[in-house]
Amino acid sequence: MERIFTKVHGSGNTFYLYETNDETEQDWVALTKWLCNKENEGGADGLLLVLPSIKAEAKMRVINADGSEASMCGNGLRCVARHVCEKLGVDEAIIETMKADLKVKKEKSIYGSIPTYAVEISPVSFQLESLPMEYHNQTEIQNQIIQEFSPTIHFTAVSVPNPHLIGIVDAGFITDNSHQLSLAELLNGENEFCSDGVNVSYAYPMKNDTIFVRTFERGVGFTNACGTAMTASALVAKLNNIVDSEMVTVFNPGGFVKCNVLEENGEYYLTLIGNATVICTYVIKMENNQYEFLSKEDTNEQLQYEQCIEIVKQETASFMS
């Protein structure tokens, strides 16, 4: 059989998007591993499945490049939001995800005419059991030096609902990612702290309303961007007075986003705003777990996004050279 897949990205976090009414139609793990193989059209970070929902406009599942399933993906959700809203002819919708039904909304473009969407990031928890993570019988880790990880970096653990360990670092840890790589590989292998692994992000303060974030994503590795990680990092930066604005600009290797961080009566309300770019569409032949690209049709959207990337290069040149 032949099926149409769309290649999309949010902040350089690249996915194949596929809509189906039959959740058991394919071996999604085998398909995703094939799609994400870099030898196949450059690969991707994962597969976004758009499915029917009985309680929302659509349901999203996220299969990582290694075949594992993520509970949420902020960058992917923006791409699904665009797909669903354009299909239904609406500007707002609710998308069902593994742990929450999330609001999505079309927004004013972040640059030029780049399609831009805002998505809710929820629920937020600092309880280590929500990641899960264990550390000396503590219930939380907030702005804390963990000697086993680093004698100088302050870490915060938070789930949104994907599990994140956020370290606030100076520029040296961004220009040289060897320390982050070593820690991330430790925490995503067999270890005593994170039984299911964890996304590890290093956040560097740039201005009073701007940070740079690099993420080692569980099931993927270093990625151009991770939406939930950028939002979690913006939250951590706001809580620790590293930024003093509710709207935080977050640069990353793949581009930039805006993260809105609101707190009311001890509850946190997080919104991720950024591009939802369609790179191209493919017709793929699928038979008995064998796959073949039959045709490809490009859009011109990536060209404008690359102009946006120049902003990132200019802003981060001092420590990303």
Automatic annotation (TrEMBL):
It catalyses: (2S,6S)-2,6-diaminopimelate = meso-2,6-diaminopimelate. It holds the Pfam family DAP_epimerase. It is found in: Cytoplasm. The keyword Transmembrane does not apply. The active site is at residues 73, 226. Substrate binds at residues 13, 64, 74-75, 162, 199, 217-218, 227-228. GO terms for molecular function: diaminopimelate epimerase activity. Its EC number is 5.1.1.7. InterPro entries: DAP_epimerase_AS, DAP_epimerase_DapF. It comes from the Bacteria. Catalyzes the stereoinversion of LL-2,6-diaminopimelate (L,L-DAP) to meso-diaminopimelate (meso-DAP), a precursor of L-lysine and an essential component of the bacterial peptidoglycan. PANTHER family: DIAMINOPIMELATE EPIMERASE, DIAMINOPIMELATE EPIMERASE, CHLOROPLASTIC. Homodimer. This is Diaminopimelate epimerase. It comes from Ureibacillus massiliensis 4400831 = CIP 108448 = CCUG 49529.
